[in-house]
Amino acid sequence: MELNQGRRQPAYQLILTWVLVIVVMNVVGYLLKKASLSTMLTSFLEEIVVLTIVCLANRFWLGVPIHLKSELSFWQQVKTNGVPVFFMVLNGSLLVTAKHFTGHSALLVLLALLIAIFEETLFRGILLGGFLRRFANHVRWGVWLAVICSSLLFAASHLINLSHQSLTMTIGQVLMAFGFGLLTSAMYLRTGSLLWTIAWHFLEDAQVLVNTGLLQQGVNLPAWAGIGPLVVYGGVAWFMLRRSKLADIRARFLN
To answer: Taking the complete model, does pTM exceed 0.70, yes or no?
Structure first.
């Protein structure tokens, strides 16, 4: 599926969609907690509700096509995603070597998959794709403007974690999330397949949830812990989205 360069996506639609998702997550979470449901069930229901809303909003309002199947061969995609694939393998190894894998852990893995599908659909599939259309006339900087805007919204979404963890840990997560957003955006734009970003996001969240728990109790990373991932992920994204590759990206998404 391709985007129509002739139609510039209104920025207010994208921002409003993001705000709506944040509000709905908070309201649904509050109502479900009032219903005395378990934290696990509440998390599942939250993700299902917001994923449904996002898909409906895109279907009937935003109209941003989401690319799932790449025109590149599998091995071309692996080569393009060389460094991110290494991170995926690392996350996968941390998941399969988890010391205490139980039935509860299996539910956390399933939740991680649901989170990955929702967040990648929203932030890379819809918001990144929408910002690409918004900045379609900016030949030189349009791709990077879209990547930065969608990644900033992804990072800002993690501020919601202040409801159950410290400010310093949340700042660290925001920095990591911004870097993660930059690199997953690069993966999506270079391969034309959202499946790669969903897969990495799933493995990243699954190994964290299985090893630290749903609320990451007992974990308190300092704010500066997010600087390293931001620099590394951002550097790889910059290389993947170097100027010589931008024309191919525009041809793939804006023709």
So the answer is: yes
